[in-house]
Design a protein that fits this description.
Layout: E1 4-11, H1 23-31, H2 33-46, E2 52-55, H3 62-66, H4 78-86, E3 92-95, H5 108-124, E4 131-132, H6 142-147, E5 152-153, H7 161-166, H8 169-181, E6 192-194, E7 197-199, E8 204-205, H9 218-235, E9 238-243, H10 252-271, E10 276-277, H11 287-292
Parallel strand pairs: 1-2, 1-9, 1-10, 2-3, 4-5, 5-7, 8-9
Antiparallel strand pairs: 6-7
Helix pairs in contact: 2-10, 9-10
The structure holds zinc ion.
């Protein structure tokens, strides 16, 4: 089977840090997020690379935005979503929850409320709603996720750092930094059915460059990206790269150059048919394959698929 490249972008602005907000967060969300999103969209168009933009639904709900401090543009961003939808490249809009609630910590009722709010926002803007990136990558409340109609999620990154995660927060941070700073090849992943959904684990986070992380050399990041892509081509698995626009806040041009270099490499390999570029939604089981089985045909409620735009 041909290997695949999947890229997911967590679009959240200040919602990503709503419970631990600093003035610097607000300043960056207000001034840096939009130019970075525009630059990312330009790069994806230049190389015809479709990605999954997992968005916090409240970015399209002005009343939610107005309950938070700072400029409303830190919390409300219909302009960015519109640019994504209108881009030349057919991106997928996915979900990053309703209001960036930690779905692992929330009780069933809170999780359900948050996801139903997200579902409502997506439907009322005619946006797809099938791929989920759990806020803070903390997995939980799978029943509520499946009931809301989501079908695919990004699982925890694979690799040796996940063992350090179990050892505690500081071990995880140290291991994560070492992993990003050394040319250790990222692993490719295989989508798997789990809890009624499809799990597409992450392979690699394109980390930001603030604090100690500024010492991670772009050359090391490039080597890892290229090794990850090559491994997926060799194994026929998926190289799942992910990041937030905020990972471009510091050393912005250097970060954009790194991504541009990688997208050019991936587009070149794709043009030779050596890799396929696929959104998260493309791993959802096709609704057709279920209905083709005559024995499984049962009357369904009128609420069925029509509102679910197919993923890009
Ligand atoms: Zn987030």
């Amino acid at each position: 089977m041909k290997g695949k490249l999947t890229i997911s972008v967590d679009l959240e602005l200040a919602w990503g840090v709503w419970d631990q907000l600093t003035l610097e967060d607000l300043r960056m969300a207000e001034t840096a997020e939009r130019p970075i999103c525009a630059a990312l969209l330009e790069l994806f168009d230049r190389h015809s690379v479709p990605v999954t933009w997992a968005m916090v639904a409240a970015l399209l709900d002005e009343p939610s935005a107005k309950k938070h401090p700072g400029s409303v543009s830190c919390w409300y961003a219909p302009d960015i979503v519109e640019q994504i939808v209108r881009a030349k490249t057919a991106h997928e809009i996915g979900s990053h929850g309703g209001r960036h609630l930690d779905l692992a910590a929330a009780d069933a009722r809170m999780a359900e409320d948050d996801l139903l709010f997200a579902e409502h926002i997506h439907r009322s803007h005619a946006l797809p709603f099938q791929s989920l990136v759990f806020p803070r990558n903390r997995l939980g409340n799978f029943d509520a996720v499946a009931r809301a109609g989501l079908r695919v999620y990004r699982g925890r990154d694979v690799g040796w750092t996940s063992a350090a995660h179990r050892a505690g927060r500081w071990a995880a941070k140290a291991a994560n930094l070492a992993d990003k700073a050394l040319p250790i090849p990222p692993l490719s992943v295989t989508p798997q059915a789990r809890a009624g959904l499809i799990d597409v684990p992450g392979s690699m986070l394109l980390i930001g460059r603030n604090g100690a992380r500024r010492f991670v050399l772009p050359a090391v990041t490039r080597a890892k990206l290229s090794m990850g892509l090559r491994r997926a081509m060799k194994t026929g698995e998926v190289f799942h790269l992910w990041f937030h626009p905020s990972n471009f806040y510091y050393r912005r041009q250097e970060q954009l150059d790194t991504l541009a270099w990688f997208l050019e490499l991936a587009a070149e390999q794709a043009s030779h048919g050596r890799i396929e570029i696929a959104t998260m939604g493309s791993y959802a089981p096709s609704p057709l394959s279920a209905s083709q089985d005559g024995s499984a045909r049962r009357p369904r409620s009128a609420a069925a698929p029509s509102a679910t735009a197919p993923a890009a």
